[in-house]
């Protein structure tokens, strides 16, 4: 089962990382693809400056060190994957964890060991502005269904995520489930802050589905006012 995830920058030409995630579930020869320092919640105040937003999903680019030490974020076209294999005996018997090929373990903010790979995918970034501003908004959009070449479907709400991060008592981005067919607001990002979480994806595995590869695309968007 696999889905694609993309991060996108809107309303402001600045730093942006785009990453795609593919989730593959192998059902005994059948394959579904549902192309779907520590702190409390990790939100850090950054210095005001030229208006910019940055979003990283999975592997990203930060040159010249970590961001808190003067590192400069940039674009990255890396495609990450997340997958899970469902043995025949386990088909439809309950939730299964997915794993990712993302190698991001440390925070690009300060180099702290933050995500546990291969179970988790890093999602983080910042919103910076020189003056007063309304908050930026992080959203995620998924199609209604994952679809196979043969036309079979799996509702996207069979994919969920648990949010966390090593050392976090509470998550910055809330845990949730893709609603499918509409944008979901994940987080309101205050001006001049850095935010981050590690997302652990799960497939509900409550269905007996037709054989095939089911795909769909998820888009993460950080929008500045």
How does this model look, in words?
- The protein is mostly beta strands and 225 residues long.
- The chain has one domain (4-36, 38-223).
- 0% of the residues lie in helices and 46% in strands.
- A hairpin with a 2-residue loop joins strand 2 (20-27) and strand 3.
What is the topological layout?
Elements: E1 4-10, E2 20-27, E3 30-33, E4 43-45, E5 52-57, E6 61-63, E7 72-74, E8 79-86, E9 96-97, E10 99-100, E11 121-128, E12 136-142, E13 145-148, E14 153-155, E15 159-164, E16 176-177, E17 182-189, E18 193-203, E19 214-215, E20 217-223
Parallel strand pairs: 1-20, 2-8
Antiparallel strand pairs: 2-3, 4-18, 5-11, 6-7, 8-10, 9-18, 11-18, 12-17, 12-20, 13-14, 13-19, 15-16, 15-18
Keywords summarizing the entry:
20 strands, seven-stranded antiparallel β-sheet, elongated, 0% helix, mainly beta, 225 residues, four-stranded mixed β-sheet
Task: Produce a short descriptive summary.
The protein is an all-beta fold and 225 residues long. The protein has strands spanning 4-10, 20-27, 30-33, 43-45, 52-57, 61-63, 72-74, 79-86, 96-97, 99-100, 121-128, 136-142, 145-148, 153-155, 159-164, 176-177, 182-189, 193-203, 214-215, 217-223.
């Amino acid at each position: 089962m696999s889905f694609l995830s993309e991060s996108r920058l809107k309303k402001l030409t600045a730093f942006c990382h785009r990453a795609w995630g593919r989730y593959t579930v192998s059902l005994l020869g059948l394959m579904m693809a549902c192309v779907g320092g520590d702190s409390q919640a990790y939100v850090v105040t950054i210095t005001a400056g030229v208006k910019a937003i940055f979003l990283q999903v999975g592997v990203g680019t930060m040159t010249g060190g970590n961001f808190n030490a003067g590192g400069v974020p940039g674009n990255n076209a890396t495609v990450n994957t997340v997958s899970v294999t469902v043995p025949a005996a386990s088909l439809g018997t309950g939730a299964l964890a997915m794993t990712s090929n993302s190698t991001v373990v440390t925070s690009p903010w300060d180099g702290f060991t933050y995500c546990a790979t291969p179970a988790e995918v890093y999602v983080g970034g910042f919103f910076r502005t020189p003056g007063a501003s309304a908050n930026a908004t992080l959203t995620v959009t998924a199609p209604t269904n994952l679809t196979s070449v043969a036309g079979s479907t799996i509702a996207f709400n069979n994919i969920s995520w648990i949010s966390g991060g090593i050392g976090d008592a509470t998550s910055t981005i809330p845990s949730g489930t893709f609603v499918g067919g509409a944008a979901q607001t994940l987080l309101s990002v205050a001006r001049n802050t850095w935010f981050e979480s590690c997302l652990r994806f799960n497939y509900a595995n409550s269905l007996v589905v037709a054989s095939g590869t089911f795909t769909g695309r998820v888009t993460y968007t950080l929008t500045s006012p």
